[in-house]
Each structure stands twice: as structure tokens, then as C-alpha cells.
Write a structure and sequence with these properties.
By secondary structure, this protein is of the alpha+beta class. The strands form four sheets. The chain has a five-stranded mixed β-sheet with strand order 1-2-9-10-8. A five-stranded mixed β-sheet has the order 11-12-13-14-15, sandwiched between helices. Strand 12 and strand 13 form a beta hairpin. The longest helix has 16 residues. It is globular, with a radius of gyration of 22 Å.
């Protein structure tokens, strides 16, 4: 790590590509000793957002993210760390997190509630949101929550009209609109169903205010994104919470992030000053990553840092898939060295398709598969296909 000469850009720190990669890994909790005292909530606070998704193959993505950083933490413990649902008819407990639109639908630390006031205002300013809503339906749902306490969409009158999955009922449309406006908040789930409550009742009073203007919201979100990334370009930072580029431009100079240049990066970048304060040391995690993991959210960044092309193929027609429905990248030695498309068959973890960068990736893949199988309660691993046939026998031997 060196400082640029005064003749070029006095304030810019120069990072090698390897330094930037290690800084990113440490910022994401994948290099160095994990914060076991902080646990799952510590991971959430450090990342600032954990993406939610309905797909569950090995496990749901919000479970895979802390698993990748902490190892085989109990899945029940993960759920309780995010959500402590209120009993039917009972008051909402003080939440540690809430769900909202950030990078996508995400679990967010409750401390970030005030920072999304700008997005709630933007949603309220839209005349419509996806679905038409019958007159009075919105007020009816809010009144029902006020009178009866936390409820699921089913308890509010049903989530669907009986058609396709997007054929929502008036109650579901209304409560989701209220969620986007910030009048309603989801701080818990029963099974996979959101439990809704009035924000005025569920969000701590010290946080329940929408008086921050857009700049006051965006500036700390930019700073938090930079801290979670370690180092990133304008596009990287904007993508983290899906901000607009001009929003980042308006605050980046006084966000607290430090301008840097990175070897091989064609665009300017910024880094968390704490990330530059000390050399990056520690043990690299060997693990499988969710396709929705924040380390690899943004495809261009993943290619730039790791030289690895990552794409979720769940929504790609099966004949056009290259790596499988839910291909999970393999992180080992600070690099992405393969991927596997997993499935479960009884108590067996099935590796439907395995891709490896070479022989050195065999043992890390075997280690990651063994650990993942044990975590989800499987007692065996079966390999169906390896893209490099010459490595298939080696992988089977490494597993046993």
C-alpha cells in the first residue's frame, strides 16, 4: 500500500489488486477471525444488509450468509437473531432488525430505520405501486393491525385471490404498500410468512422519525456501504443499497471514505479509512457462498476483484444453464475457485454439478461440501457430475 505522489493526486492511496481483494474479504467478514461474540447479529450489523430470497436449496440465502462467515451456527439461532415474532394477538418485541428494500428485499439492522426515510418518501410519492387497490382497503388493513396487533397477510384476510403467485388480495396489496410507505413494518416471520405490525408500535421511539432529509439519509448509507465493501468504485457503493449515482456523487466527498486508486481498476475508488489503517492478516474462510451473498452481489465487481463470472441461473431456461439452478461459488484461500449446484435427497447432499478451477480446488471443495452437509443434517455427499471429468475421482476420494 503506497501513497500517490503529490504531482498526481495527493490524497489518493494506491492499492494493489491483491490488497484490494483482501480488504474486501475482511470487510465482508471472510478473512480473519470471525466475531463469534457478535454472532449473527454482528454479521448483520457489519454487512448492513442481508438479502432475502424465497429459493431454498441447501438453505435459504439469509441463513447461508452468516453460515459462510461463522461456520455451522444453528439454523434456529439464525432465525431468532433476525426475528423474534410476536405471538398472535401479543405485542411486538423490541426488534433487532426489520425488512425493507435495500439492495433488494433485505433484513436490515433496526438502527438503519431512519436512513431509509428518503426511500419511504419516494414510494409515498408514487401514484400507484404495481397493483390497483380498492377504495378503503388500505385504511381497513391499518385499522385491523391497530386493533388486533401483529398479523400475517393470511390473518389480515388472505394473501392471494386464487390466481398466480402475483395475484395478490386487497389485504396483501394494502399491507405491502403500507410496508413500503413505512406505516407498517415487518420485524418477524412465522414460518416464511411476514408478521406485520404498525411501525409506531414496533420501531423503538428513538428511531421512529422520518425527519432526515435525503442527503442526511444517503450520506451515512454511502459511508456504511463503503465500510461493508472495504473498497469500491462509485458503482459498487451505489449498488450496495441501490442508490442512484448522482446521490452518491452528492455526498461522497464528505462521507468519510478515502479516495484510492486500485491496480487494474479503470475507475476511481473509495475505501473505508479503518480498512487502510492496518495490514490485512488472518485466516481465509473456505466455504460455499449463496448466489445472493453481498461479497458477490454485483457481477462487474466480482469479475474485477476475483476474475470470476457469477450469475444466478435459477431464472435461466434449463437448457441454457452453464453451472446449474443455484450454483454456489466456492471461496478458498481468498479466491473463488469453483462452484457447485447443490440439492438434497433425504439425508444426502447431492452435488448435481461441480466446477473446479483445477486440482488445487479439489480438497477445498470437499471440505466445503462436508461442512455444508453436516450443517443441514445430511450424513453423506453424492457427486453427480464434475465439469472436469479427470477431477471427479479425486473429489470423491477427498470426500471419503
Amino acid at each position: 500500500m503506497t501513497t500517490a505522489s503529490p504531482a498526481t493526486e495527493p490524497s489518493a492511496v494506491e492499492l494493489s489488486a491483491a490488497e484490494a481483494r483482501r480488504i474486501a474479504l475482511r470487510a465482508q467478514g471472510l478473512l480473519g477471525a470471525p466475531d463469534r461474540r457478535g454472532g449473527v447479529r454482528g454479521v448483520l450489523r457489519a454487512l448492513g444488509a442481508v438479502q432475502l430470497d424465497t429459493i431454498s436449496v441447501l438453505a435459504r440465502s439469509h441463513e447461508l450468509v452468516p453460515y459462510a462467515r461463522l461456520g455451522p451456527v444453528g439454523r434456529d439461532a439464525i432465525e431468532k437473531a433476525y426475528w423474534t415474532p410476536a405471538p398472535p394477538g401479543g405485542p411486538s418485541p423490541v426488534p433487532h432488525a426489520f425488512e425493507y428494500w435495500s439492495h433488494a428485499a433485505c433484513v436490515l439492522p433496526i438502527e438503519e430505520w431512519p436512513l431509509f426515510a428518503f426511500r419511504r418518501r419516494a414510494y409515498r410519492g408514487r401514484p400507484h405501486w404495481h397493483h390497483d387497490l380498492s377504495d378503503g382497503a388500505y385504511d381497513t388493513v391499518v385499522k385491523q393491525l391497530r386493533d388486533e396487533g401483529p398479523l400475517t397477510a393470511t390473518e389480515l384476510g388472505g394473501a392471494k385471490n386464487g390466481g398466480p403467485w402475483w395475484d395478490w388480495s386487497d389485504a396483501k396489496i394494502a399491507v405491502e404498500r403500507a410496508l413500503m410507505y413505512g406505516e407498517v413494518v415487518c420485524t418477524g416471520r412465522r414460518g416464511w410468512k411476514r408478521v406485520y405490525d404498525l411501525a409506531e408500535r414496533a420501531v423503538p421511539a428513538a428511531l421512529l422519525h422520518d425527519d432526515l432529509d435525503d442527503i442526511e439519509c444517503v450520506r451515512p448509507l454511502v459511508r456504511l456501504a463503503g465500510k461493508a465493501l472495504g473498497v469500491g468504485t462509485r458503482a459498487d457503493i451505489a449498488d450496495y443499497h441501490r442508490l442512484k449515482g448522482e446521490q452518491v456523487d452528492a455526498v461522497i466527498a464528505d462521507s468519510g471514505l478515502v479516495p484510492v486508486t486500485v491496480e487494474g481498476w479503470s475507475r476511481p475508488a473509495w475505501a473505508d479509512p479503518d480498512a487502510l489503517a492496518a495490514p490485512v492478516r488472518g485466516r481465509h474462510r473456505t466455504t460455499l457462498l449463496s448466489p445472493f451473498d453481498s461479497l458477490i452481489w454485483e457481477r462487474a465487481r466480482t469479475e474485477r476483484i476475483f476474475g470470476f463470472t457469477h450469475r444466478l441461473e435459477a431464472y435461466v431456461p434449463k437448457p441454457k444453464r452453464l453451472h446449474g439452478y443455484f450454483a454456489m461459488p466456492l471461496l478458498a484461500g481468498g479466491k473463488l475457485v469453483g462452484r457447485v449446484d447443490p440439492a438434497r435427497s433425504g439425508s444426502t447432499l447431492v452435488a448435481r454439478q461441480v466446477s473446479l478451477d483445477g486440482p488445487k480446488a479439489v480438497e477445498p471443495m470437499a471440505q466445503a461440501l462436508r461442512e455444508a452437509a453436516e450443517w443441514v443434517g445430511c450424513d453423506a455427499v453424492r457427486i453427480e457430475r464434475v465439469d472436469a471429468p479427470g477431477l471427479a475421482a479425486e473429489l470423491v476420494r477427498a470426500l471419503t
